[in-house]
Amino acid sequence: MRPNLVVAVLAFAGMGASFMQTILIPIQGQLPELLGASREYTAWVITITLLTSAICTPISGRLGDMYGKRRIAVILLGLLAIGSVISALSPSVAPLIVGRALQGTGMGVIPLGISILRDVLPPHRLSSAIALVSATLGVGGALGLPVSALVTENLEWHTLFWIAAAIGTVALVLVLLVVPAEESHSHGRFDLGGAVGLAIGLTGLLVAVSKGNEWGWTSASTLICLAIGLTTLAGWGLYELRHTSPLVDLRVSARGAVLMTNLASIAMGFALFSSSIVFPQMLELSEEAGGMGLSLLNTSLILMPSGLAMLAMSPIAGRLERRIGPKPLLVIGAIVIAIAYLAAVAFDSNIWLVLAINTIIGIGIGLGYAAMPTLIMQAVPLSETAAANGLNTLMRSLGTSVAAAVVAAVLAGSATGSVIATAPTEAGFELALLLGLIAAALCAVLAVFIPGPGQISGEEPALQEGALQKR
């Protein structure tokens, strides 16, 4: 086994999976015309990927713990490739939604990859490798946006999905050839009832959050979805506590270190996506409306360094984590993000300032995302590594989903009172950036109060505290 090659393959697979989240952003507004369907239906082409990725990450993590992480990763990459081919061949909205749903399942590869690293790498190699694979949750989307913009400006839009199919297929083959198979550390029957309950609960909650701006936050549709989601998740929690082999061990998830890390993950996910909503609109908005008037491709190139910064921070974050530990690293990452947002709020925006601020946010995200998996694995038993990392990935995604809804509502609300009714105002942009600052500050506070992992009854933790410092 060649460790460097294993890390590179898992990072490539993670970036390929997260690339699917932004693949259609450049042509989102054109989908009704391209597919001959209403905007209400074409919006599901974006939403369905969010839903399936959120549902799949904790479920695939548990399956990986039970039946082998590489095996489940290969299945997910296969589903991603199949979904890409279906999307590439789709002449209408219905099969495209099916294909996009299958593409979303690939996000489960990221927590599985992090857990595989724990199984195959020596302790002193873990920190940098975990930082790299964890960061792919943001890197793939940031790097994928300019690629998507370039393709859609020069080629037929279905070409995007053929590229996605190629990425998924190559990742699948590389995982089979390079990543070693491992023994499962968890036994028992798969909790099908828990998986169904989680799927229904998350679907209700995320549909309400993602469609609230479109349907109206007090509309019957939004309130019904929200009620279904929250009620189902409450019942699911009670069911999981009584199950002998639960999908998600809520007693483990309720431990101080795990719970506080997951709460900090939601806040950091919100901070990440606030800038991802604000800066593209600010850059693309016409100069007459108070924006900078850039094309989609030029906007993507301005935003791309954020993803490169996340990637570049991986080895640095690894060294810092070995020196100071994951908790201080998470605090530092959140403070870096907060400083970037503070500068965004304090100074008048221009292209170079946006480039610098977004890059600094990428640095902070790279540091924070590097720390989270280690904090989780220090507090859970070996048999729960993939499931716990899957839940943590879900928490990050939940933060981005909430940010998308809240920031979109803020910008839309400011637009209704502006001279140009469809254009967000400067006050709207400032409020959205202030929310990003608050989320980053909250993440730092939560990280400060993350307790030590403590003792795990019956099993050693998946990663011993201080193991990364060992040479």
TrEMBL record:
InterPro entries named among the record's database cross-references: MFS, MFS_dom, MFS_trans_sf
Primary location class: membrane
Sequence intervals crossing the membrane: 7-29, 41-60, 72-91, 129-151, 157-178, 190-209, 215-239, 259-279, 299-317, 329-347, 353-377, 398-421, 427-450
Keywords tagged on the record: Membrane, Transmembrane, Transmembrane helix, Transport
Record domain Major facilitator superfamily (MFS) profile: where: 6-455
Gene3D superfamilies linked to this entry: MFS general substrate transporter like domains
Superkingdom as given in the UniProt entry: Bacteria
Pfam family, one: MFS_1
Location in the cell: Cell membrane
Entry membrane topology: Multi-pass membrane protein
Protein name in UniProt: MFS transporter
UniProt lineage: Bacteria, Bacillati, Actinomycetota, Actinomycetes, Micrococcales
